[in-house]
Amino acid sequence: MNRNPVVPYILIMALGIGLIFFMSLYGLDNQEEIAADQEQTEEGGEAATEEGGDEASSGDFDPEALAQGKCVSCHGQNYEGGVGPSLVGLDLSQDEVKDVLKNGKGAMPGGLVPDENLDAMAEWVLSLQ
Asked: According to the annotation, is 13 in a ligand binding site?
C-alpha cells in the first residue's frame, strides 16, 4: 500500500494548534486570579503576614534580595555595570536615586521597587562601594 507520509504530520499539527487554542482559553477565565497572584509575587509574596495576608512592613524589606532578583541581569553580578550602568559609587543624591527607582530612566523601567520601600532601596544602592 502506498500511504501518504504527510497525513500524520498534518494531524499532529492540527492537534498542536487545537491544544494551544484551548489552553489560551483557560487563561481568559482566570485573568483576575492570575493578576492577583502575579502582584502578590512581585510585592514579596511569601513575606506577607499569616494573619490577614497583608503586605509585609517595610522593616521586613531586604534591598539586596530584591536587587539579586531584579537588578543583576542589567547591572551585573557585582553591580559594576553590564547592559545598565554601574551602581557602585554613584554620585547621585538619595532623592535622585528614589526618582530613578520610581519612574525609571533610559532603558530602566520604573516601578521595580514598591513605593513604601524606595527609601531603603535608595540607601542600599548608595551604600555600594
From this structure: no
Give every CB contact of residue 125 below 8 A, 6+ residues apart in sequence: 63, 67, 87, 90, 97, 101
User: The C-alpha cell of 118 is what?
Assistant: 524606595
Confidence (pTM): 0.53
Which is higher by pLDDT, 80 or 26? 80
d(CA 51, CA 9): 54
* Per-residue pLDDT, 54: 40
Distances (CA, A) of 58 to 13, 109, 129: 51, 22, 24
Is 23 marked as a binding-site residue? no
Annotated binding residue 1:
no
Instruction: Using only the alpha carbons of the chain, give its radius of gyration.
Output: 23
SS (H, E, C) 62-127: CHHHHHHHHCHHHHCCCCCCCCCCCCCCCCCCHHHHHHHHHHEECCEECCCCCHHHHHHHHHHHHH
58-127 has CATH 1.10.287.110 classification: no
